[in-house]
Amino acid sequence: MKSRWLDRPGSLRRVTVAAVVALALVVAAQLVVPVYGHFAPEAWFGFAAAYGFLACVGMVLVARLMGLLLKRPDDYYGGSDDA
Fold first, then answer.
1. Which residue segment(s) compose the domain that 17 sits in?
2. How far is CA 52 from CA 31, 42, 49, 63, 69, in A?
């Protein structure tokens, strides 16, 4: 089986560095492009990035809570028949 580029050592680090650089450039663009929000906090430097990050963390926490509440036992559908 042919090795894919994400399976190679060092690829994950390159992707992470590229993502961090891209996000930093997007936040730094706020220095050049003026931001006008409907509410005062929306005009703060980096507000959109912080809000997006916190929203993502919130969604992950809610999903984990839902997983705890909705999960079923491994043999919920009738045991482990090897049919």
1. 1-33
2. 18, 12, 5, 16, 26
What's the total number of domains in the chain?
A: 2
Question: What amino acid is encoded at 8 in this protein?
Answer: R
Residue pointed to by tokens 């005009």: 43
Distances (CA, A) of 31 to 4, 21, 28, 46, 66: 38, 16, 6, 10, 39
Contact by Cβ (8 Å): 43, 35: yes
Encode pLDDT of 21-74 as tens digits. 999 999 999 999 988 889 999 989 999 989 999 999 999 999 999 999 998 888
The first and second tokens of residue 83, run together, are 């049919």
* 53 and 42 co-located in one domain: yes
27: closest CA among 51, 47, 56? 47
> Is 2 inside any structural domain?
yes
